[in-house]
Amino acid sequence: MVAAARQPPPKILLTGFEPFDGSAVNPSLQAAQALRGRRIAGHQVVAAALPTVFGASLTALLALLEQHHPVLVLATGQAGGRPAICMERVAINVDDARIPDNAGAQPVDQPVVPGGPAAYFSTLPIKAMRAAVQAQGIPAEVSQTAGTFVCNHVFYGLMHLLAQPRWRGVRGGFVHVPWLPGQGDPSLPLEAIVTGLRAALAAALTHAQDIHEAAGALD
Ligand code: PCA
How many Å lie between the centroid of ligand 1 and the Cα of residue 2? Predict the structure, then answer.
């Protein structure tokens, strides 16, 4: 008798953004690439780059969802000037760009989804993720705003997609990471960002419910 084929592990989708604003690198993309194919808590990491472009980033994200059918999606981006890995709590229905995106678009006071809800909360356990990153000795915070540029656009668009019955049960959220050394101050080395994201993903996969600890320094 032929042994039953082993089930492939469930997938998690980890995205990073292409460099923007004249920078040659984006730590979110480097970290996602470093985690490509890794096993975390019995899941396999699918890593992908999103264009730092309003609209096209969400088209790419939907194609990735349809291709991979992940059980969890973590989108990540660079937040220059922040000192810690930031678990984003909320995505808002606003595009309001201070600088043009990589295609030259600079929407001001536009909705991400016309007629959509004002906001969506992350469905990842942000406090458990913060605790797991801090336990690695890496600075981590809960953040109450992902801004109004392409990161918030993707976060909102992701949560709007996952709110559809078609993607029922798929959890999603967004994490901002600091600059790499050489991009500006404050910064975190790539190894710390990779270790932090790995710990955050492990916590997300092992906590169906969040833990409840008081808000932290940036809150
Ligand atoms: N950070 C930007 C967009 C791409 C990225 O990595 C942001 O915070 O919106």
Answer: 50
Is residue 31 one of the residues assigned to a domain? yes
86 catalytic? Reply is no
Residue 77 CA: nearest ligand 1 atom is 6
Whether 5 is in a domain gets the answer: no
Q: How many domains does the chain have?
A: 1
**pLDDT tens-digit profile, the chain (219 residues):** 555 678 899 999 999 999 999 999 999 999 999 999 999 999 999 999 999 999 999 999 999 999 999 999 999 999 999 999 999 999 999 999 999 999 999 999 999 999 999 999 999 999 999 999 999 999 999 999 999 999 999 999 999 999 999 999 999 999 999 999 999 999 999 999 999 999 999 999 999 999 998 876 555
Point out the catalytic residue in the list 43, 88, 141, 153.
Answer: 88
Beta bridge partners of residue 143, listed in sequence order:
88
Among residues 142, 48, 148, the alpha carbon closest in space to that of 88 is found at 142
Distances (CA, A) of 208 to 126, 143, 171: 11, 20, 10
Q: How many other CB atoms are found less than 10 A from the CB of residue 140?
A: 23
Tell me the CA–centroid distance for residue 204 and ligand 1, in Å.
Answer: 22
| CATH code where residue 25 lies | 3.40.630.20
User: For a substitution probing ligand 1, which of 21, 33, 78, 106 has the most ligand atoms within 8 Å of its CB?
Assistant: 78
Element (H, E) at 92: strand 90-92
How far, in Å, from the CA of 26 to the mean position of ligand 1? Answer: 9
Q: Which atom of ligand 1 is nearest to the CA of 153?
A: 9
